[in-house]
């Protein structure tokens, strides 16, 4: 059985709960500035849409985590989508709490989840992607040992400008 709670020096990464769908959580998802590099920026999130997303993980091989600090303040979320047949894992993250941004919690949780995957599964490859202008996310990828794994050129529009998507990976093969 895979332990789905990950503890770090400053954080607890645990299964996302229905009770995490709060007004604050909705405000993060509907914050155009916070979501500026995410395709979530095109959506209007409601309790119902978030509940549907949460429920989509039930009975699946994927993971939806909540990130909280040691005082149990909810800071953000992470997802892990896995392809068991190919031993592939794709990670996503959102640090929503404004006062928690820029403090290293994104990297700390990212690295912890990568280590958790490596310890509990036998990954061939862990992947992620971000718009190339999302410098903070690209730095997290590199700092956590990921390397370039391809580019989708001019894939998204950001402020009416074409932006590439940079894919990154850590290989275990």
Structural features, described:
It is globular and about 40 Å long. It has four helices and eight strands; from the N terminus they run ββααβββαβαββ. β4 and β5 form a beta hairpin. The longest helix is centred in the middle third of the chain and has 16 residues, at 105-120. The mean pLDDT is 95. The two termini are 24 Å apart. The protein has helices at residues 23-29, 47-55, 105-120, 135-143, and strands at 6-7, 11-15, 63-69, 74-83, 88-95, 125-131, 147-158, 161-171. Strands 1-2-3-4-5-6-8-7 form an eight-stranded mixed beta sheet, with helices on one face. It is of the alpha+beta class. Helices cover 24% and strands 36% of the residues.
Topology record:
Layout: E1 6-7, E2 11-15, H1 23-29, H2 47-55, E3 63-69, E4 74-83, E5 88-95, H3 105-120, E6 125-131, H4 135-143, E7 147-158, E8 161-171
Query: In this structure, how is the largest beta sheet organized?
Result: 8 strands, mixed
What do the pLDDT scores average to? 95
Radius of gyration: 16 Å
Helix/strand structural class: alpha+beta
Distance from N terminus to C terminus (CA atoms, Å) equals 24 Å
- Would you report the number of β strands? 8
Counting DSSP H or I runs of 4 or more residues, the number of helices is: 4
Query: Reading side by side through the largest sheet, how are the strands ordered?
Result: 1-2-3-4-5-6-8-7
The proportion of residues forming helix, as a percent range, comes to 10-25%
Uncertain residue segments = none
Beta-strand content estimate: 35-45%
* N-to-C series of helices and strands: EEHHEEEHEHEE
Shape: globular
């Amino acid at each position: 059985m895979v332990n789905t709670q990950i503890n770090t020096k400053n954080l607890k990464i645990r299964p996302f709960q229905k009770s995490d769908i709060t007004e604050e959580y909705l405000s993060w998802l509907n914050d155009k500035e916070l979501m500026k590099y995410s395709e979530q920026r095109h959506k209007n999130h409601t309790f119902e849409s978030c509940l549907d997303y949460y429920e989509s993980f039930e009975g699946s091989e994927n993971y939806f985590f909540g990130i909280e600090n040691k005082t149990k303040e909810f800071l953000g979320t992470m997802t892990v989508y896995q392809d068991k047949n190919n031993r592939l894992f794709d990670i996503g993250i959102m640090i929503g709490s404004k006062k928690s941004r820029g403090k290293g919690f994104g990297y700390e949780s990212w690295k912890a989840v990568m280590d958790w995957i490596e310890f509990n599964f036998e990954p061939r490859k862990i992947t992620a992607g971000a718009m190339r202008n999302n410098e903070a996310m690209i730095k997290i990828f590199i700092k956590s040992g990921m390397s370039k794994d391809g580019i989708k050129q001019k894939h998204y529009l950001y402020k009416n400008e074409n932006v590439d998507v940079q894919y990154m990976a850590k290989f275990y093969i």
